[in-house]
Amino acid sequence: MPSSTPQSGPPSGPPSGPPSGPPGQTPPPEPPNHQSPEGPTAAELFPPDGGGIAPFWPTHLIDIFIEPQAFFSPKAALGKPIYLAMAVLMAGLSQGISRIDRLLLDTQIVGTKTNWEELSPILQSWPKFWVTNLIGGALAGILLWIISGWWFRMRIRLSGDPKPDPKLARIVFIYAFLVRAIPHLALVLFWTVSHSNYGEAFNNQGVALSLLLTAAFGFGELFSAYSGIMTFFSVERDRARLWFIFAPAVFYGFGLTMIISELMGV
User: Fold this and answer.
1) What's the count of helices (H) and strands (E) in the chain, helices before strands?
2) In contact, 188 and 97? CB cutoff 8 Å
3) What are the distances in angstroms from CA 156 to CA 133, 142, 147, 160, 226?
4) 86: burial class by Cβ within 10 Å (0-12, 13-18, 19+)?
5) How far apart are CA 69 and CA 40, in angstroms?
6) Are the CB atoms for 60 and 83 separated by under 8 Å?
7) At what angle do helices 207-232 and 166-194 cross, to 10 degrees?
8) Among 72, 170, 203, 255, which has the highest number of CB atoms less than 10 A from its own CB?
9) Residues 228 and 73: beta-carbon distance below 8 Å
10) pLDDT for 47-75, tens place per residue?
11) CA dist., res. 203 & res. 44, Å (int)
12) Which DSSP state fits 188?
């Protein structure tokens, strides 16, 4: 009489759990998921020891002026400490020299010699001018990185990204700042070989050209910064335009009008 007990066979469905592999061997780790809710980080996009295109390579640096979307590319080595230090120093140098320009312009308009006498040692000597500004520029650059970089990140949050990476925000800010810093520093370097000292360049209406140049290229900086945040952060387009183009443009326009009015004696 045949047995009524069913014979066992292979399981009819797929295994319910992940394959365990050979005894004693742990399964390989899953690849990291970079699509976190917080968005990309500077460490992921621009690791300090990572390779890529040097941001100060001439053919790539020109992109910050004419095609910022290409400049702010993960293929560029924007996070390398040496390049970041160069960008911070250049931004601080430009900021410090602009501060001197404004003090001298106030002296010229008000008619007093106080600021001129205080700044006379560096105004009459190019070596003293550059040494002083290199030291002061390093400090100014650090303050820009910390304070202005913090406000840059706040504007990204106001544009719709709730948790932008702090370092990534500062990287975009400091490289966008170069749009006005580089032409400004190029002008001062030209004066270094064409004038005997900075005071002479100022007396030849150089300060007007310097202030107008930085103000004019400041508008280009706005579009560069806007391109950077649209590339890396989850922001709303209209809000980003408000905080990174329209509102700063009104501020720059007001400053430019004030400079022109002061130069014309209005």
Assistant:
1) 13, 0
2) yes
3) 31, 20, 15, 7, 10
4) middle
5) 17
6) no
7) 160
8) 72
9) no
10) 888 778 999 999 999 999 999 999 998 88
11) 50
12) H
Residue with tokens 């070989």: 193
240 phi and psi, to 5 degrees?
-65, -40
What is the band of 254 on the pLDDT scale with cuts at 50, 70, 90? confident
Tokens at residue 26, please?
A: 């742990």
Between residues 33 and 19, the one the model is more confident about = 19
The total number of residues written for the chain in this structure: 266
Tell me the two tokens of residue 105. 């312009």
User: Region 249-253: what's the mean pLDDT?
Assistant: 86
pLDDT band with cut points at 50, 70 and 90 for residue 203: confident
Q: Nearest to residue 77, comparing CAs of 180, 152, 171, 141?
A: 171
232 token code pair:
């890396």
Please state, in angstroms and rounded to a whole number, the distance separating the CA atoms of residues 73 and 87: 17
φ, ψ of residue 76 in degrees (nearest 5): -90, 150
Cα angle, residue 183 at apex, residues 180 and 186 outer, rounded to 5°: 140
**Distance (Å, whole) CA 143 – CA 210:** 22
